[in-house]
User: Fold this.
Amino acid sequence: MLRAAIAPADTDPASLPAMRRETDDILRVTTAHPDAPPVATLDDVRVRLLLARVGDELSHA
Assistant:
């Protein structure tokens, strides 16, 4: 299935790493959950992303 992430646009090159991280986070969550929307913003997946990050921290503890 095709997935797309929409991150805020910015013209400052210094913002590119943060935009890339956000896009990667959105795609991580949407590809892990088949019922997630195929096109998503951070607001669309914020709760799932938070739970994924908590799971990451617990697996490293």
User: Anything to note?
Assistant: The chain has one domain: 4-60. Residues 4-60 form one domain.
